[in-house]
Amino acid sequence: RLYSSKKYFGKAEVGFTNDDNEIVDKYYDNLVEIIRLTTTNLSSNKVSFEDYDSLHVYNAKGDYLGTTNNTVAYSDIYYLTDKKINMGGLNEASSSSSEAPAPSTSTGSSTTNTTVIDEDTLVDLTKTAISTAKSSGSKTASVRVKDAAYVSADALKAMASTAKASGMTAQLNADTTSGGTTTGRLTLDPSKTANDIDLGVYVDSSHTSSVQSKFDKWFSNDVVVIALEQQGSYGTTVTVSALVNVSDISTSNMKLYSYDTNSNKYKELTNTGVKTDSNGYLQFKTTDGNYIIVSNGALKRS
C-alpha cells in the first residue's frame, strides 16, 4: 500500500517480466519477488508491505531500505529477498570523499562505497589495509567504508581472520555521509562480535524528529537524538562518532540513554567515555543500538 496523509493512490504489479531476466539470473538464490508501482500525484510518501513477512527490501538502484515489517521510502521498483545480499552492483559507486571524524594516523586504511558489504569485498579491503599498515609500521589494518548499510557476521569473521593471519588486528570504520560530509561513524573490532551489524549513524531530522519531539514533550531536559540503524545489541562495544550540536550540554553533566521505540523504554548507558572533539563530533562507546538520547543530566519528567 502507498500512503500520503493516509490516502491510498496507485497500484502495484507483482511478478517477474522479461526485463528482469538479468536480475533474476544474478540473484536467483535469494530473490523472492519484484514489485512495480504505478502512481500519480504522490509526494513524500512511504510504502508498507502487508502480505510479505520479514523479507528484505531494495529499491530500483539496489539500495537497502529495510524489511517488509516496516514502512520504507518510495521507489518505482522493489526487490524483495529472503536475506540481506549485496545488490550494490545496481549502483555506480560514489566518487566523493570526506574526512572521517578523529581519523587515526597510525593505521593502514582502505575505503569503498557500497550498500551491503559482502564477504569477498571486505576481505579484499582488509588485504589492502594490511599492506598499507605494514608500510607504516602499524599493527592495525583499518578499513573505512562509506554509506554502507549492513555487514554480516560471516563477513566480519572473515575480516578478522584475514588480519590475524598477517599478525594484525582489524578495525572497521563505517561512515555515514550527507552532502559530502561525514555526519556519523561506527567503529568496531570484527573479532569481538558474532552479530550481523547495521552500520548507519544518523543525525538528520528525517531520522530523529519523531523521537526528538517525544522527549521534548515528556522531559524537561535539553536532549539531542542520534539514530543508530542497529536494533538491539551490537554484540560488542562499538565507538560512535556523531556530528551533533551539544553546546548546551556539558560533557561533565551529560547522560546517554538507549531508547527502543518498539518497547517505548529507555535505559541509561554507562562507561561510555563520552567526549567531544574540535571538529564538532560527539564520541562515545555503546553496546546497544536503537536511538541514543543525549541529555543534560538525568532525564526528568516535565
Tally the helices: what do you get? Answer: 4
Task: Assign a percent range to the helix content.
Answer: 10-25%
Quantity of strands, as a count: 23
- Unreliable stretches: 1-9, 89-107
Characterize the overall form. flat
Written overview of the protein:
With 302 residues, the chain is an alpha+beta fold. Helices cover 17% and strands 37% of the residues. It is built from four helices and 23 strands. The strands form five sheets. The chain has a seven-stranded mixed β-sheet with strand order 9-11-13-14-18-22-21. Helix 2 (119-136) runs parallel beside helix 3 (153-165). The chain starts with a strand and ends in a 6-residue tail after the last strand. Mean pLDDT is 83; it is low at 1-9 and 89-107.
Key descriptive features of the protein:
alpha+beta; 4 helices; flat; 5-stranded antiparallel sheet; single chain; disordered N terminus; about 300 residues
Short description:
The chain has four helices and 23 strands. The protein is α+β, with helices and mostly antiparallel strands and 302 residues long. A seven-stranded mixed beta sheet has the order 9-11-13-14-18-22-21. Strands 2-3-8-5-6 form a five-stranded antiparallel beta sheet, with no helix packed on it.
Fold topology:
Blueprint: E1 2-3, E2 11-14, H1 21-26, E3 31-38, E4 46-47, E5 56-58, E6 64-67, E7 72-73, E8 77-81, E9 108-113, E10 116-117, H2 119-136, E11 140-146, E12 150-151, H3 153-165, E13 169-178, E14 181-188, E15 197-198, E16 201-202, H4 205-218, E17 223-228, E18 233-243, E19 254-260, E20 265-268, E21 275-276, E22 281-288, E23 291-296
Parallel strand pairs: 9-11, 10-12, 11-13
Antiparallel strand pairs: 1-4, 2-3, 3-8, 4-7, 5-6, 5-8, 12-15, 13-14, 14-18, 16-17, 17-23, 18-22, 19-20, 19-23, 21-22
Helix pairs in contact: 2-3
